[in-house]
Amino acid sequence: MIVLENFRRQQNTFIVRIFFLLTTITVIAYTEILERLDFVVYDEILHFIDSTNDSNIVIVTIDEKSLSALGSWPWSRGVHAELINRLTSIGNKVVALDLLFSELQSTDAHADLLLAKAIATHGNVILPVAPISNNNSGALYLTAPHPIFRQHAVLGHVDIELDSDGVARRVFLYAGIDAPAWPALALVLADPSTAGHSLQINDNKKGDDRLKHWVRAEETLIPYTGKLNSFRHVSYSDVLFNDAKLADLKGKTVIVGMTAAGMGTRFATPLSADNRQSMTGVEWHANVYVMLQNNHAIHPLPEIWVTILSFLWVAIILTGVCWTKNNFTVPLLAFFMVAGLFLVYQSLKIYHVWIPPSAALLGTLAIYPLWNWRRVNQFIRAFLITQLRSSTALEAIQDGVIITDAHDHVVYINRGAEKILRTEFNQIKGKVLQKILHLYTNHNHRPEDRSVKKLLAPGLECPGVLECGLKTTLNTERTVRITRNQLHDEHKALIGSVIAITDITDTVELTQRIAHHEDYDALTKLPNRTKLMTQFDQLIQVAQITNKTITIFFITLDNFKKINDAMGHQAGDKLLRMVSERLNESVNQDDIVARWGGDEFILLSVYLTDKDIATGMAQKLLEVIRSRFEIDSLEVYVSVSIGISFYPENGLTSDTILERARTAMYRVKRDGGNCFNFYSLESTLMWTRDRLELEKELRAAITNHELQVLFQPIVHAETHHIARMEALVRWPHSARGFLSPSEFIPLAENVGLIDQLGELVLRTSCLASYKLLKLGYSVNVSVNVSPRQLLNKNFLQTILNALHDSGLPPRLLILEITESAIVNDMERVGNILTKIRELDILIALDDFGTGYSSLTLLRELPIDIIKIDKSFVRTLDQNQNDLTIVQAIIGLGINLGLLVVAEGVETARQARILLQHHCYYQQGYYFSRPIPYQALLELINKKR
Q: Which Pfam families is this protein grouped with (predicted)?
């Protein structure tokens, strides 16, 4: 009886264990507790399934080669417009740009219009949209291309879902805010019928108070092509400049995106373990496109079906074992494990269906101890405690992981945590968590302080996540994302916690660097040249009202090249950063220190009102920079050359004053450096060996026709056709670089070369205008005339010869003169201009409004055109005084029957204001920079 009772008790216990096992497997399968293990199995099986590549797709990469050819990122929108136009020229049917043009380009609005036009002309350009969360308000909004770009574009979302282990395995074909309205970018590329042209986009990024969610639909797993970089890559610059490379793209599907190191988004994929590198976003889109094109999408089985199949699998094995009454041996266990994996493999390969097997496999494993529970019970009990800690660390192996006991003492950290904290496990083992994690918030709001304390407090009730700063044991600071989860045993008693640390310092710094790239120098963090010019013009506006003096220091390092040659460019960069820091520390709080370029710096000050005070500041700067620098444990000594100029004493425009400060600096350099000098007229007339060498080179350049004549269009702003063009000479010097007229015209005047130079420009300009006339384009050409040219007794004959030899009608020639060419001998100049005007040649008065006798010149001389100086145009949309002056000049010209041209138009707003006040002819970077003749012809053809 006792034996029978024991047998029944064992039977009842066995049935309870079976019930518990099946229940547990059901719960595990439905709740996806073993999701990480399923990921590992999926990744391994994927290696055995061939997924062919598609030779029809080409990735146009923004790589290091393109950055070297086109300059640092971001590029002008005009570059992207040119790429799209070239693809249009070969009949490209569709192109996807993994680039988000959410804002207009503040420095070049014309480039934005070119890009919008290129998109409209192509007709099938796909642009991305993406969800963005406002960290302050918690609102969710959609970041999309600016309306001028998206109105003719096709839109697709680029939301990429990362699994819990940080690996991108899946894609949601549709997603959106509160409803899955947007197709994925690759889906639009593969199936244009899914395009979301008409979907409404809220451009208010502040969001509203209504709670919003990012909703996804149609989840599929991606069968990657087998290895990274398996698609054909073509460099962005090759597409722009290599016609053969462009021709190879005919008939191809093109995706454009970033692959350069440190740029763009990269993801870990199942291929990363083999290739040891992340996948770029553009290649990820290519994989999704190939999957959709070949109908190889892998569909994950819904949780309920996974649960049912896992339950049935374990139940069938249990039934078979009970029915045969055989011992559940290790070989039999291995057979069922392999059989289960084989069925999963076949389902994935043949039917493209993924069945997560971890729950079923765990159930299969559990059958063994179920039959042999007495032998393994003790072993499992000891094993579970150790395995719990080890498996938890493995789950977060890509980040830093810290494991504590129930009292928050550190019991384990992985290598990632050692690297982030800059310490070793044996140095912090057993210490309290709060003493090794020195966290701080980036803001001083109390709720965030409480969040840090709450996260580090023992007995955390629910998982906590926080982005904050971390100070390492070496006192370096990092930006991290901290995730903390508590560990409990089978009785729900707290046994410790797991802290995962993700270092996001590089991501945060890259975001800040891109945000400040347009206005600040990446190396020294000082304002760059563009930002400086804006600040300088603002100071001039204030100085015009307050009558203050602005002092300009042009500072350059002496013999900086020796540092780079002796110690390398990294040492040179360190020195530039140290110099910028010392300059900042030496000036007043409101002074402006900027990096002009290379080893040149600019200091603007409104506190140094006279030369004596400016001298004291210059001497202070010399002494500060002469002090010892320590770079890589070496003592380095450098000096500087400083040129000083004043507003308004040395000029009325920022360009003029800076150029004169630079002239004074060069005089110091020629004299040996390590000193300062004030600008004076004599400093521009210094004869030096370098000046003699430059004169010789200029003579050779004129003789050998090495000077380049560019043309800047003068546009009728109402009709947008090119009515006139101004000829501008440049000197592409082989050693000194691209020299502007201000760097060699004064020399040409001083050494008697201006007549030869002027005749060369005049003949080239007349010939260019005649070529356009023969092509059916009547475009007046405007040529600048220097005072020396105008007063030359042979100047009139030079004009006649140029017109005769080129065939250009005199009515198409305009001669531009400045007040300085007239005021010294107005009677003689008046006679010359009258004779020129009798030839039917037009006369234009340049830089009108900046001199003192402009109205007298209009009364006494045969002037046809007045050109408003760019110093008034540049700030007319910001400064009411400048706008009033411009209105007065336009009204004066209209009343006198003169044609008015505005120079220096750089924005659409400036062009619109001028047009509203009846200034129809405009010139400036908004319409075009000075360009060669061939480029001008192409621009005229395009506008026609």
A: CHASE2 (PF05226), EAL (PF00563), GGDEF (PF00990), PAS_4 (PF08448)
